[in-house]
Amino acid sequence: MKTKKGNYPTTPEMLSDLKLKDIPEFATGFKAIKSTMEHISREAGIGRGLLGLNKMNQKGGFDCPGCAWPDPDGHRSNLGEYCENGAKALAEEATTLQATPEFFKNHRVSELLQWTDYELGKSGRITEPMILEPGDHNYKPISWNGAFKKIADELNALPSPDDAIFYTSGRTSNEAAFLHQLFVRQFGTNNLPDCSNMCHESSGSALSETIGIGKATIKLDDFSKTDLVIIMGQNPGTNHPRMLSALEETKRHGGKIIAINPLPEVGLLKFKHPQKLSDMLGKPKELTDIFLQVKINGDVALLKAILLFLINEAEKNHPDALDREFIQHYTENFDLFLSDLKLNSIRDLVTRSGVPYNRFLEASELILRSKKIIICWAMGLTQHKNAVDNVREAVNLLLLKGSIGIEGGGVCPVRGHSNVQGDRTMGIWEVAQKDFLDKLGVRFQFSPPYHNGYDVVRAIKAMERQKGKVFIGLGGNFISATPDTELTANALRNCKLTVQVSTKPNRSHLVHGDTAIILPCLGRSDKDLQNGIPQFVSVENSMGIVHSSQGNLQPVSKHLMSEPMIIARLAQETLGPNATFDWVQMASKYDLIRDAISEVIPGFEDYNRKVRQPAGFYLPNGPRERKFTTPSGKAQFTTNKPSDVTLKDGEFIMMTIRSHDQYNTTIYGLDDRYRGIHNERRVVLMNREDLQLAKIPEQSIVDLQSDFEGEKRVAKNFIALGYDIPRGCVATYFPEANVLVPINNVARKSNTPASKSVVVSIRKRTEGT
Ligand SMILES: Nc1nc2c(c(=O)[nH]1)N[C@H]1C(S)=C(S)[C@@H](COP(=O)(O)OP(=O)(O)OC[C@H]3O[C@@H](n4cnc5c(=O)[nH]c(N)nc54)[C@H](O)[C@@H]3O)O[C@H]1N2
Ligand SMILES: Nc1nc2c(c(=O)[nH]1)N[C@H]1C(S)=C(S)[C@@H](COP(=O)(O)OP(=O)(O)OC[C@H]3O[C@@H](n4cnc5c(=O)[nH]c(N)nc54)[C@H](O)[C@@H]3O)O[C@H]1N2
Ligand SMILES: [Mo]
């Protein structure tokens, strides 16, 4: 696809210098500690780094800016309550490197666009507000007042509030998120797309429909009380390393683990606890008991086969294969589900899943014997066309077994960003929820908009047709995180103004509207003083615990502003005489924001007291106690569709996944240690037989092409690597391959881009192309 402005592809296509090493046998160990220390001392210096690490995830400290895995309710390890990748996340934020006005003066935007995400991130923390004016080649400093006035003027000049788009990434605190959505709604729109739209939206859709709440129903200590944990479409060794400690507890208490993944991810298989000397010196612990190497998007077929197996067993030898009492008392639509399921044959389903039959049997028998089951999942289930079906089918399994709302059993969608769940609880959602909006309107004396806003995909399309004219990103990296990079770039370039509230330079500063503004903010680990008084914020983790987070590091520049204050100042400037309260006063003392939250959002009554409890507090969760909060009060069985992806000759189904050295679009380094791939990200992992058949020699350079509904998308210069991956399936890294993800290939119902189900063909490069 051609770019509209500028001649460069939005994502640089050059290769670095690939090195292959042995795949390690287990996760963590000394290498992890070495890597932690290297990252911390290189970026932040050892003193500042350790000052931060000692407070991370400790009671009274700050929440790790990495993933949303919960901290223990009780004792926290003195040796450190963090993992290798959490330490990298801190190193990245606590870096002493600075992207100063001098940096922006020395590098034109067109030059920076050719830098990789890795190089961009390594330029350091942004130190002052910056503006890129129409026709200029370089960003230059602008005062905070000047920036707010410019943005407010553009917003107020729009024909309709719906011409503005307000994106949120999931690192934003509850306090900032609440103010943000309030401002956006007082301004007059529900255009609140967020990273969740590309992440666990499918889980939210499926769980709200089936059990009445879009969140996990288990607590951390359920991992030590369960018979069986099933981990689907998730790579915890890299993306939630502290989950491995919970899985270790499962094993210590005699529980079993089934992993369902197209890749034999090292972190899932064997583990050494980095903070236990006995572990470090001893043998690694086996984690996974049964590994099911499913084909990409083969999960519904596999789950259906397991469900059918259980039903057959219940009808033959094992009446207790199902929990009939639970099904009768707590659920609906069982008969519909059953008659639909019986249309299938186990053999056929298992073949479609790609899992060897004996393995399927072994897993099904283990499930048959287990009473208390936890199912965990992440992006491997949520980013497909039938992603909502994936999650609903997993729920069917738990409902069948009555393993929900019990000790040691339930659903566990493992969230990504550290506060993505909290942001949604605070009202960051494009969907207009009447009750919530009514309350907001009464409490803050305004008339909220009652029509739905744009989610991520709809926002891109609106900007493409020139409907969205101002884009404001509260964190995140919209251009790199979204699908269809060149199309999205054109959409952003259609805007009159693009604004990014950011900590570090990223591609979204370089793919911009007529005018672009960067507002540099404090990060999690930074000290936040308002009127000289230290403030803390709060976040909600993956298991619905809300707790405080207070940074302790000196900010790298005196010009940085906190997110709540940035939003308040912008709101005050934009709403002017229409503001119904003093925004700046509220953002000067975060207790005042929390008081407002406690008046509007259920579960947050007495917020200021509860959040000061050392480990925070749990939000109400009906299904945790078998109170299903669906309209009928019953949990819902559903009927679901297996994959409808069909591959023509020479086509593959591609998943875009994370390496061990990245946090989404922030690239910490070029290595993927657990997969043996070093110093290169432009790789495509392929089955060795597929390589042979396609006559693509190992390590040759290939181009990837995606054909979708008559449109062709190409990503050049990838190195083909033979890997243990099912036939017909390939893997690339996100965000380099996002250019291939078609904007219209989205999950039914949740509208999440199907970035794990991209159909591609692969061509060996010939000289000169
Ligand atoms: N260090 C680090 N931590 C992170 C992040 C990060 O980038 N770096 N990102 C954070 C965020 S926002 C999120 S959402 C999470 C993401 O956490 P994950 O979901 O673990 O991340 P992905 O790399 O997208 O991995 C998806 C896994 O699903 C598998 N998979 C892909 N397709 C399928 C399929 O069809 N079926 C099955 N069964 N498996 C499949 C892949 O092989 C891979 O192991 O991590 C969070 N934590
Ligand atoms: N192909 C493909 N695409 C995907 C995915 C995939 O698996 N495959 N995964 C999707 C998922 S799960 C997600 S969650 C999205 C992620 O989408 P985003 O959340 O938009 O992306 P991030 O890379 O997490 O955002 C990184 C940027 O956030 C800014 N930042 C960091 N800390 C802070 C802070 O404290 N405050 C503020 N204001 N800014 C900060 C920095 O400037 C940094 O450059 O990507 C999605 N896109
Ligand atoms: Mo995510």
What report would you give on this structure?
It comes from Cerina litoralis. Its cofactor is [4Fe-4S] cluster; Mo-bis(molybdopterin guanine dinucleotide). GO terms for molecular function: 4 iron, 4 sulfur cluster binding; formate dehydrogenase (NAD+) activity; molybdenum ion binding; molybdopterin cofactor binding. Residues 125-499 form the Molybdopterin oxidoreductase domain. InterPro entries: Asp_de-COase-like_dom_sf, MopB_CT_YdeP, MoPterin_dinucl-bd_dom, Mopterin_OxRdtase, Mopterin_OxRdtse_a_bac, Prok_molybdopt-oxidoreductase, YdeP_MopB. The protein is globular. The strands form 10 sheets. Strands 5-4-17-16-15-6 form a 6-stranded mixed β-sheet. It has a 6-stranded mixed beta barrel with strand order 24-31-28-30-29-32. The two termini are 16 Å apart. Helix 7 (144-157) crosses helix 26 (563-575), helix 9 (201-210) packs across helix 20 (387-401) and helix 14 (299-315) runs parallel beside helix 20 (387-401). The chain is built from 30 helices and 32 strands. With 769 residues, the chain is α/β, with parallel strands linked by helices. The chain is 34% helix and 17% strand. Among the domains are: 97-173 and 427-521 and 560-588, Rossmann fold (3-Layer(aba) Sandwich); 216-413, Dimethylsulfoxide Reductase, domain 2 (3-Layer(aba) Sandwich), CATH 3.40.228.10; 646-764, Beta Barrel (Barwin-like endoglucanases). The structure holds ligand MGD (2 copies) and molybdenum atom. Residues 66-67, 85, 199, 232-235, 238-240, 260-263, 265, 294, 296-297, 299, 378-380, 416-417, 655, 657-658, 662-664, 756 line the site of one ligand MGD. One ligand MGD is lined by residues 169-171, 195, 198-199, 379, 383, 416-417, 474-478, 481, 501-504, 506, 521, 523-524, 563, 656, 664-666, 734, 738, 741, 755.
